[in-house]
Fold:
Amino acid sequence: MRCSLRKNVAVSVSCLILLLLVSLRMREDEDNIAKTSLSRDLALQELRSAGNYQRFQELWNASAPINTSYLYLAGFPSISRKYLTIGLSSVKRKGGNYLVETLRSIFHQSSEEELKEIVVVVHLADLDMEWNAHVSEDISRKFSQHIVMGCLLLIHAPQELYPPLEGLKRNYNDPEDRVKFRSKQNVDYAFLINFCSNLSTYYLMIEDDVRCSKSFFTAIKKVVTSKEGSYWVTLEFSKLGYIGKLYQSRDLPKLAQFLFTFYLEMPCDWLLVHFRLLLTQKDVLRFKPSLFQHIGLLSSFQGMVNRLKDEDFEEDSFDIPDNPAADVFTSIPSFESYHPGRAYGSADGYFWGKSPAAGNYFTIAFQKPVRLARVSVRTGSEERKMDSLHQGRFEVGNQQDKNGKDCSNYIQIGSFEEGRFEKKGLEDMVTFPVACIRIYVTQSQNEWLIIQSINVWTKQGT
Structure:
């Protein structure tokens, strides 16, 4: 009896210690996120200060490209204007390089027809010209066909064109070598963007260590078409840094001037956020699933380890969902600003609700009935895997109530497994126009609920 009691006490103590460690880790993650967010907000407030107002006015009035000369390391610009330029900058890394793998992914995941509308521009921006020449020769040998086709070229902006990179002010208490690295990186991208301003209608910014999803070009083109007639500055196809950020080429001269003018102020991804806000796009327009994944482990800054991954990336997801206009609501209490709309559409982030009970629901009521072709729902996250839907079903409704905000009856078409629901071929299963879809909780759970994404594809022609 004593042994059993001691064993139970030991198990209880172990569980308490484990829970305490998990709680401390979660608090540490939240504190780090809060510190990063605070630093970025303070930096953006500084850029908005009165002292910078005159610089902004001069910047917006000067829309001409930066006057500079480039070295052509391989290939030349196409005579005809393309649909999309993919720009990436690359420097030497300690212990390896991912540039060739990135280029292979771009070309392998694109069809011959898609490649006719794409040009990839690589800025080999290292200060070591011997390294630039070596990489250029290697790429020219491995991708000679793409260079001949005019869909790949390599450039270099000479070092004498760069502004001062030594003795810069140390914002955010960054060490001098870090300040120099991120400042040079801003100028690297400024020269790259400046070069690309007249090559195509749209410009896609990625890094030199990414993997692409299949037919990412067609997916981007579909989103751009859906945005015709609406104002936007940046469309995002990855949540990481400056990977998968799409711009209209008409804005590139301003963006290049902006990065060049404020190169020493803050990291590039923070500057990109402020550029979007300056051009009055308040909301983040990010599309899921993500089309690009970060693959690099060794950072270009001192070979530091960088394990960042985009959990919304799907390599075989060759089609961005339609997600028709709809009203989104739930009976699950939301946590802070993690509102229901974040799980559907292009709103950034996800829905986070408190301990759902049996009978709770999460409903999407379409503004116009649609014919469903495919649905995908993902709950939980890598950091909080238990905050997934443990037991639930997916339902569709074909008749809205008098208020037009919900449906009067629902039909179950499947259940969640390991926090996910995925169903294709719905046009054969659901033969009627669907007015609502609903996630219905069938068992209460103590854990909270994260709904990362709800994606809907409709039958073509409806």
